[in-house]
C-alpha cells in the first residue's frame, strides 16, 4: 500500500511479493529503505525512546492535563497493559465507565472484552434511549496506534466530564452512550508481542491457522463482515496465506461475531473503527464505486466527515475515493448496508509513521482523533449547529445590512419540541433589530427579552433538517474588523420526563425514527421502541457567530463564506473564509479543465470542472491519464458538502487510467484526481466522441436543422431505390 506523496518520491510498506511486482513493473524506480519492517520499527522505537527519556517533556501537540499512558512495546501498551489502563480508568470514574459481559472468546480462547461509558451505568446493560456510538480499535493487530487513539479519546472524555459539569463532555456522557472494543483482535496482537516484544510486529490477521506457516496465518477480520462478503477478489482474497484472506464465510470468526452481536444488542446510531494509516476518514461503500448512496445519505456522510476532519485536516470520502481501491467484507459496508448504522473508518498516522509510529508521535496522533470521535458522539443524538449566515443589502458605507442566520439539526435524532433561540450582539457598537422585511412576512418574528436579546421560536427539527431564522437588521462599527453575536437556544417548555419521553417516542414513530427521513427502513430495522431517543438531548446550546465587517463580506458572502474550524461552536463569516480555500481542494472551488491536454499538479488531490461542448445527445466523454498509477473519478454534481453521483472511476495500477462516461454539451462535470499515487505534475487529456448510435451535435439549432433532414432524405432515397 502506498500513500504519502511529495515532489520526488513516495515511501511504502510492501509484502515481499508486492516488492517483486513493483520491481518488475515498467518504469518503476524503487529503492529498498528497510528490508525488515519489524526490525525497522523496533530500531526506530528504541532510538526514539532514548531521545525522549533525555528530553523529558510532553510530546509536541499533546493537550494539557493528564498524559496518555506509555507502554512497554515501543511506547505502545501490550494487551495486559491496555486492560490494566482501562481498569485504572474504571476505578477513577466508577460512575461513568463499566465493563460489559465479554462477547465470547477469540479463536485462541482470549475473552473479547467490551466497555461502556455513560452517566448512570444502568443505561449500559441494555438498549437504552440514549443514542450510542460503537468504537473499535486493533481490528488489525499491527495497528497499535488505534488503541492509543481510543484510550486517549476515552480518557479526555471521562476526565473532562468529571472535572467540569458544564463541559461538552459532561453533556455527552449524560445523554449518549459509548461502547468500546479496544482490542478487537487480541490473538493477533498477542502474536505480535510474543514475536516482537519491543514493537514492530507485522501480524495483521487473527489467530486462526489458515496458511500452513505461522507468519501467514489468520483471517483478515476487516474482510469478514457480512455485506457483499466475497463480492469479488479485488481487495479481499480466498487464499488462506493472503494478508486479505476473508475467511470461509461471512462472520466465520468469533471476533467479527462479537461486533455483530454488540450492534444487534445495543443498536448504536454510529460506529467508528480506528485503523492505521493514511490520515483519512472513509465511509461506505467500499465494495464497488457504483454502489449507490442516496443524495441525502451521501450528503449526511460528507457533512459529518467534513466536520469530523475539521481539526486534523484528514482527507475524507467514500473508501475508494480516499484509499484509492475497492474492497469487500469490510466493517463500514456491513454497518451501513445491513444495519443502517452510520459507519466510519478513521485511518490515523501518515506514511512516515507507518504501522508502528515512533514513541514521540503516539500522543500527537492520538490527539488528532479526539475531536473526530467526540463529534460523532454528539452527532449520534440531536445537535444544533449554525448552518448558514448571509449578510446582504449593506449600505454604501458598509456598516449595516440584513442578516439571516440558519440553524441545522446536524445530528441523527429528531428535535421534537419547540424551542426558542435568542440572539444578542456582544459589543455595544453593534445593534440588532427585527428587520422590517421579517415583520411584514408575518408568522415567525423576533421579540425582545430582557437579558437575552432578540428571541424567536425554533420549530421542531427533524434529523438533518435546517431552519432559517427571520432576517435581522444589523448595524456595526466600521472601526472594528469583526462584530460578534451570541446565540442561545432556550430550554423546551417544562414538563415531566415521562410525559416528554412518551410524546417523544410517539412523535419519533410518526416522523420516522432515528435516522434521516430518506432512510425509511431505519425505524423498522431499529425494531424496539427503546432505541428511540429522548426528546431533549441537545449537545450544543450556545453558539457564537463572528462577522467580518469587510465590505466584501456584506456584498458577496453567503454560507460559502462560513468557516467553523477552530473553537467549537464559533462560526466566522468572512470573504477570507472562501478565499483561503485552495483552488481544486473541493468540487466547490474547482480548477478549470478544457478539451485537450490539461495538467494536474501531483502535489495534492485536485478537483477540476469541465464543460464539454460537442454533443447534445449520444456523446461520450473520455478522461485519460498519460501517467500510470493514477486515480480518476468523474461526478455529475457537486453539492454544498462534496461531489455526488459518480459517473466513472478508475484506479490504475501499473498502467494509465481511462474513464468514459455519457456526457451532454454545456453541462459541468467534476473530475477528481488523487495525487497520492504518482507524485509530480502530470498530463491528462479530455475528449468527446459520438457513441456510434444517434448523436445530436450541439452546434446550434440552425446547423442541426440543415444537417439532419439532409441525412434523413439521403437515407430515404437509398431505401426507396432498394425497394
Ligand atoms: Zn487496518
From TrEMBL:
Family in the record: Belongs to the peptidase M14 family.
InterPro entries documented for this protein: Carboxypeptidase_T (IPR033810), Peptidase_M14 (IPR000834)
Protein species of origin: Emiliania huxleyi (Coccolithophore)
Keywords of the record: Hydrolase, Metalloprotease, Protease, Zinc
Residue positions of the active site: 347
Protease recorded as keyword: yes
Cellular-component GO terms for this entry: extracellular space
Start and end residues of each stretch annotated as Disordered: 191-213, 496-520
Single annotated GO MF: zinc ion binding
Required cofactor names: Zn(2+)
Biased amino acid composition, Basic and acidic residues: 496-509
GO biological process per UniProt: proteolysis
Top-rank taxon: Eukaryota
Protein name: Peptidase M14 domain-containing protein
Residue ranges constituting the Peptidase M14 domain according to the UniProt record: 75-380
Amino acid at each position: 500500500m502506498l500513500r504519502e506523496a511529495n515532489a520526488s518520491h513516495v515511501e511504502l510498506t510492501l509484502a515481499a511479493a508486492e516488492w517483486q511486482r513493483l520491481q518488475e513493473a515498467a518504469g518503476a524506480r524503487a529503492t529498498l529503505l528497510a528490508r525488515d519492517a519489524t526490525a525497522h520499527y523496533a530500531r526506530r522505537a528504541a532510538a526514539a525512546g532514548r531521545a525522549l527519556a533525555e528530553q523529558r517533556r510532553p510530546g509536541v501537540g499533546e493537550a494539557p492535563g493528564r498524559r496518555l499512558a506509555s507502554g512497554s512495546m515501543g511506547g505502545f501498551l501490550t494487551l495486559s497493559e491496555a486492560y490494566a489502563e482501562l481498569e485504572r480508568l474504571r476505578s477513577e470514574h466508577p460512575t461513568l465507565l463499566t465493563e460489559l459481559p465479554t462477547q465470547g472468546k477469540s479463536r485462541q480462547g482470549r475473552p473479547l472484552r467490551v466497555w461502556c461509558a455513560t452517566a448512570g451505568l444502568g443505561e449500559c446493560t441494555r438498549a437504552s434511549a440514549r443514542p450510542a456510538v460503537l468504537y473499535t480499535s486493533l481490528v488489525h493487530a499491527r495497528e497499535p496506534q488505534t488503541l492509543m487513539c481510543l484510550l486517549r479519546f476515552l480518557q479526555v472524555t471521562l476526565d473532562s466530564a468529571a472535572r467540569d459539569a458544564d463541559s461538552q463532555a459532561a453533556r455527552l456522557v449524560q445523554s449518549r452512550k459509548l461502547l468500546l472494543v479496544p482490542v478487537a483482535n487480541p490473538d493477533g496482537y498477542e502474536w505480535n508481542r510474543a514475536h516482537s516484544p519491543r514493537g514492530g510486529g507485522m501480524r495483521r490477521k487473527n489467530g486462526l491457522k489458515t496458511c500452513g506457516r505461522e507468519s501467514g496465518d489468520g483471517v483478515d477480520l476487516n474482510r469478514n463482515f457480512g455485506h457483499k462478503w466475497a463480492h469479488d477478489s479485488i481487495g479481499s482474497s480466498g487464499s488462506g496465506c493472503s494478508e486479505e484472506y476473508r475467511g470461509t464465510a461471512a462472520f466465520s470468526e468469533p471476533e467479527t461475531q462479537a461486533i455483530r452481536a454488540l450492534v444487534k444488542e445495543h443498536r448504536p446510531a454510529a460506529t467508528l473503527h480506528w485503523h492505521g494509516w493514511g490520515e483519512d476518514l472513509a465511509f461506505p461503500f467500499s465494495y464497488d464505486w457504483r454502489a449507490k448512496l442516496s443524495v441525502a445519505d451521501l450528503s449526511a456522510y460528507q457533512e459529518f466527515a467534513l466536520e469530523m476532519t475539521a481539526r486534523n485536516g484528514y482527507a475524507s470520502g467514500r473508501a475508494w475515493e480516499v484509499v484509492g481501491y475497492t474492497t469487500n467484507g469490510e466493517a463500514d459496508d456491513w454497518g451501513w448496508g445491513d444495519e443502517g448504522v452510520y459507519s466510519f473508518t478513521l485511518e490515523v498516522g501518515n506514511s512516515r509513521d507507518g504501522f508502528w509510529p515512533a514513541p514521540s508521535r503516539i500522543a500527537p496522533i492520538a490527539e488528532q482523533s479526539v475531536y473526530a470521535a467526540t463529534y460523532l458522539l454528539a452527532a449520534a443524538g440531536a445537535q444544533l449547529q449554525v448552518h448558514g449566515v448571509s449578510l446582504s443589502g449593506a449600505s454604501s458605507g458598509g456598516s449595516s445590512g440584513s442578516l439571516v442566520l440558519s440553524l441545522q439539526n446536524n445530528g441523527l435524532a429528531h428535535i421534537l419540541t419547540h424551542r426558542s433561540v435568542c440572539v444578542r450582539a456582544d459589543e455595544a457598537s453593534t445593534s440588532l433589530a427585527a428587520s422590517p422585511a421579517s415583520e411584514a412576512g408575518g408568522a415567525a418574528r423576533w421579540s425582545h427579552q430582557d437579558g437575552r436579546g432578540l428571541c424567536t421560536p425554533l420549530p421542531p427539527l427533524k434529523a438533518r433538517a435546517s431552519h432559517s431564522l427571520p432576517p435581522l437588521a444589523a448595524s456595526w462599527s466600521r472601526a472594528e474588523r469583526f462584530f460578534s453575536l451570541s446565540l442561545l437556544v432556550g430550554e423546551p417548555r417544562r414538563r415531566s420526563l415521562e410525559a416528554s419521553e412518551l410524546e417523544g417516542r410517539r412523535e419519533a414513530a410518526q416522523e420516522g425514527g432515528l435516522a434521516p427521513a430518506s432512510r425509511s427502513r431505519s425505524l423498522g430495522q431499529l425494531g424496539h421502541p427503546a432505541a428511540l431517543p429522548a426528546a431533549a438531548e441537545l449537545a450544543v446550546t450556545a453558539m457564537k457567530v463572528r462577522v467580518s465587517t469587510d465590505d466584501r463580506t456584506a456584498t458577496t458572502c453567503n454560507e460559502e463564506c462560513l468557516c467553523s474550524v477552530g473553537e467549537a461552536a464559533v462560526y466566522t463569516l468572512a470573504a477570507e473564509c472562501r478565499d483561503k480555500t485552495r483552488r481544486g481542494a473541493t468540487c466547490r472551488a474547482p480548477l478549470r479543465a478544457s478539451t485537450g491536454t490539461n495538467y494536474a499538479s501531483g502535489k495534492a488531490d485536485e478537483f477540476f470542472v469541465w464543460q464539454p461542448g460537442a454533443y447534445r445527445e449520444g456523446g461520450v466523454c473520455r478522461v485519460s491519464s498519460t501517467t500510470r498509477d493514477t486515480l480518476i473519478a468523474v461526478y455529475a454534481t457537486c453539492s454544498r458538502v462534496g461531489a455526488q453521483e459518480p459517473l466513472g472511476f478508475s484506479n490504475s495500477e501499473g498502467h494509465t487510467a481511462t474513464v468514459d462516461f455519457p456526457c451532454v454539451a454545456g453541462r459541468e462535470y467534476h473530475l477528481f484526481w488523487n495525487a497520492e499515487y504518482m507524485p509530480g505534475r502530470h498530463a491528462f487529456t479530455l475528449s468527446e466522441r459520438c457513441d456510434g448510435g444517434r448523436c445530436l451535435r450541439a452546434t446550434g439549432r440552425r446547423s442541426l436543422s440543415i444537417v439532419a433532414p439532409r441525412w434523413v432524405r439521403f437515407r430515404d432515397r437509398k431505401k426507396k431505390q432498394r425497394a
